[in-house]
Amino acid sequence: YHFGTCLQQQGRFGEALQQFSEAIKLRSDYPEASACQVTALERLGRFTEASAILEPLLAAHKDNVLIALAFGVLARHLNQCEQALALLETLDPDGLDKWGRIQRNFVMGDLYDDIGKHDKAFEYYRAANTEDHPGYSVKQTEHLFSSLQGAYSPDKYATRARASNRSELPVFIVGMPRSGTTLLEQIL
């Protein structure tokens, strides 16, 4: 299951689908793996197969956030946006973890956008992006800088290993534009 989710995040949906199938072979009642199968099939454009897997999941696990999200993603292709929105509305945002709230808001934003309720979609997109942004903290920044100053103090820097090569031969830095050649030159 976890290997499948990693593959899915890399955009390797066919391979992810195989891993989710393997997970379900190992544990037949694995609604999370089945929900991920649905999202992988949706990304592969296999909407009918995804719908066939999703229907029994919806009947048995309506309160599962992954299944509701999978329905929300697939509903856009099945003209069932209103039904998916109704299901996602039943999920209590306070009962979800941060990831669940963010994903719920993004999917709901997509669904509202698809049905032409752009103001409502924007509200959900804003909520998702606000939830994801930790905000700026002066105290955290001050703590980070003081930690860095301690880690790179002159005393500690003096005891670090030095390069033993003292050659004065020229070094040619060759690369494509925007590949980091100027940064490497500055570092050297």
Poorly predicted residue ranges: none
Q: What's the total count of β strands?
A: 0
Summing up helix and strand content along with how strands pair, one would put the structural category as mainly alpha
Give the biggest beta sheet. Answer: none
The string of secondary-structure elements, in order, is HHHHHHHHHHH
Q: Helix segment count?
A: 11
For the termini, the CA-CA separation is 44 Å
Shape: elongated
Which band does the percent of strand residues land in? under 5%
Summary, kept brief:
With 188 residues, this protein is mostly helical.
Plain-language structure description:
70% of the residues lie in helices and 0% in strands. The chain is mainly α. α5 (65-78) runs parallel beside α7 (98-114) and α7 (98-114) packs antiparallel against α8. It starts with a helix and ends with a helix. The model has no long low-confidence stretch (mean pLDDT 89).
Helix and strand layout, with pairings?
Layout: H1 2-9, H2 13-26, H3 31-43, H4 47-60, H5 65-78, H6 81-90, H7 98-114, H8 118-132, H9 138-151, H10 154-158, H11 181-187
Helix pairs in contact: 1-2, 2-3, 3-4, 3-5, 4-5, 5-6, 5-7, 6-7, 7-8
